[in-house]
């Protein structure tokens, strides 16, 4: 019999809850219907209908959740041994303080109002964000900010997502206040709200900053001509953009974690590590930027003067890489000192130990010192410069770089020789003052030498007219050599030592040969063909049987 009474009591509770929710639903519908007649809400009928549907879903879920809770609570009481659920419930309600009922009722009212306000704000997010996104897109099209235009929709979607979550967390936090929950629990809710807000803002700031950087990158390339100062400088700094974006991302994430850690009292002391990491990232980024700027400024100061002679320009091209290397290492050294200061490490003992270590290494690294000393002498005694065509040992070609330890020489075939400065003993420099391009011309004994001299004179005039690097007419002072089959006339062309991958003398040698060949063809002088001279010891030996190639009289 008791079980039947308990069952009737549970059903009665469920019916009361159902009736209460039906009345509440009727009241809400009544309010929504009345709102249709308000003049300032007539244009918002579709939004009101959607809000009405949401309220129905929330009420239905709340009724279902409360009904299940009632059933489970009564089942638990019966399992624990309570025989009369009605008496137990009445006794329980009588023992509940009146203030608790007031607090609960107040909390329910406040929470309901907060939920309605939150839903209303969420419903109006699209009408607010969409026009804003449209304006941003219009500005991006006008300013040619391609990345901003492409990322606007994604940014707005992320903004709506994070704003929605933040509103619900704020509702939860304020509801806890309205229900007068314990201070510890409220502080946890506050930490959760602020922590999520920090994470959301960090993500949105990173996305916006990345889009702005990409857009500015495209904007600079579009608006500034290649020959302008801004475009020239930015073109050399452009490769730092991905690195800068990674550094910005690291700074934002480290700052985000640092701020979140600062909300947790147990690990607040770890925030110092985050601040040091941020300073470290900023120092590394700025050092890279300063290095690139110093390289560009040195090039601008040393090499931009148009009035420099070729020799002065070569000398500056030789010295500039060394100055750039020195400035780079000085910036690295300064960055290292700043990093030690960030981590509160005194650099003095480290510098002293480094000095002693350098002295010990210097005593054992004599080859290194020899290379560096030789490099200084090569530079300051002007043995050769960048762009000179030189020969040293088995290497020949154009000098590409002179560093403190090594010299790089590019062979005409393309291979690069990297030679220690200490190993350079003898140097043949083809790029000083002048050089001769020597061409040997084989001619037959039957040729008219005077006619050939006249042709060479014409070639010399044409060569000087078309090639300003030729200093003097071609020099050909008679026959250089007699061979068994032909004569050799040697020509010498005096040239300026202009930088060339093959050596200017080698290039002009080819030009002279081509011009002589064309002149000989025009004059009807046949090319010299290979010949064999046969000499006989006696007239009888001249009767040669061609079918007997092994005749011993042929020499």
Automatic annotation (TrEMBL):
Its main location: membrane. Residues 367-432 form the Mechanosensitive ion channel MscS domain. Residues 326-366 form the Mechanosensitive ion channel transmembrane helices 2/3 domain. The keyword Transmembrane helix applies. The chain crosses the membrane at residues 6-32, 58-79, 99-125, 161-179, 185-206, 250-271, 277-298, 319-343, 349-369. One of its GO terms (cellular component) is plasma membrane. It comes from the Bacteria. Gene3D superfamilies: 1.10.287.1260, 2.30.30.60, 3.30.70.100. Keywords: Cell membrane, Membrane, Transmembrane, Transmembrane helix. It holds the Pfam family MS_channel_2nd. SUPFAM superfamilies: Mechanosensitive channel protein MscS (YggB), C-terminal domain, Mechanosensitive channel protein MscS (YggB), transmembrane region, Sm-like ribonucleoproteins. GO terms for molecular function: mechanosensitive monoatomic ion channel activity. It is a multi-pass membrane protein. It is found in: Cell membrane. Belongs to the MscS (TC 1.A.23) family. This is Mechanosensitive ion channel protein MscS.
């Amino acid at each position: 019999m008791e079980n039947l009474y308990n069952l009737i009591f549970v059903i009665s509770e469920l019916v009361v809850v159902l009736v209460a929710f039906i009345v509440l639903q009727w009241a809400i519908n009544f309010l929504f219907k009345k709102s249709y007649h308000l003049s300032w809400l007539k244009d918002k009928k579709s939004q009101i209908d959607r809000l009405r549907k949401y309220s129905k879903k929330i009420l239905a879920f709340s009724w279902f959740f409360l009904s299940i809770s009632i059933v489970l609570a009564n089942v638990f009481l019966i399992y624990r041994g309570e025989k009369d659920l009605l008496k137990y419930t009445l006794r329980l309600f009588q023992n509940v303080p009146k203030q608790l009922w007031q607090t609960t009722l107040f909390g329910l009212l406040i929470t309901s109002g907060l939920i309605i306000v939150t839903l209303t704000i969420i419903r109006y997010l699209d009408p607010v964000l969409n026009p804003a996104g449209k304006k941003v897109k219009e500005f991006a099209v006008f300013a040619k900010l391609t990345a901003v235009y492409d990322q606007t929709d994604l940014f707005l979607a992320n903004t709506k997502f994070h704003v929605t979550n933040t509103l619900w967390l704020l509702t939860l936090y304020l509801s806890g206040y309205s229900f007068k929950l314990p201070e510890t629990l409220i502080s946890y809710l506050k930490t959760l709200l602020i922590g999520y807000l920090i994470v959301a803002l960090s993500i949105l700031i990173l996305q916006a900053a990345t889009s702005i950087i990409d857009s500015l990158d495209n904007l600079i390339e579009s608006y500034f001509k290649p020959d302008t100062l801004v475009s020239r400088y930015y073109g050399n700094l452009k490769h730092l953009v991905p690195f800068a974006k990674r550094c910005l991302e690291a700074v934002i994430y480290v700052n985000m974690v640092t701020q979140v850690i600062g909300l947790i009292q147990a690990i607040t002391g770890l925030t110092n590590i985050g601040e040091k990491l941020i300073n470290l990232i900023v120092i590394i980024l700025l050092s890279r930027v300063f290095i690139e700027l110093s390289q560009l400024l040195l090039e601008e100061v040393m090499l931009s003067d148009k009035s420099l002679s070729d020799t002065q320009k070569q000398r500056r091209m030789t010295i500039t890489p060394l100055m750039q290397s020195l400035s780079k290492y000085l910036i690295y050294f300064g960055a290292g000192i700043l990093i030690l200061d960030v981590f509160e490490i005194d650099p003095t003992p480290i510098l002293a130990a480094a000095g002693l270590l350098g002295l010990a290494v210097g005593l054992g690294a004599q080859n290194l010192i020899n290379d560096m000393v030789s490099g200084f002498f090569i530079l300051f005694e002007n043995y050769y410069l960048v762009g000179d065509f030189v020969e040293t040992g088995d290497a020949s070609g154009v000098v590409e770089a002179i560093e403190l330890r090594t010299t790089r020489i590019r062979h005409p075939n393309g291979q690069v020789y990297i030679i220690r400065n200490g190993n350079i003993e003898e140097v043949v420099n083809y790029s000083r003052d002048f050089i001769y391009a020597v061409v040997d011309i084989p001619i037959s004994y039957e040729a008219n030498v005077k006619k050939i001299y006249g042709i060479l004179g014409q070639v010399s005039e044409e060569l000087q007219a078309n090639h300003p690097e030729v200093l003097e007419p071609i020099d050909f002072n008679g026959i250089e050599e007699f061979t068994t089959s032909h004569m050799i006339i040697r020509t010498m062309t005096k040239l300026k030592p202009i930088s060339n991958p093959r050596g200017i003398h080698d290039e002009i040698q080819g030009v002279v040969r081509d011009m002589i060949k064309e002149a000989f063809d025009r004059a009807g002088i046949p090319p010299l063909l290979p010949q064999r001279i046969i000499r006989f010891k006696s007239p009888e030996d001249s009767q040669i049987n061609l079918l007997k190639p092994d005749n011993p009289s042929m020499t």
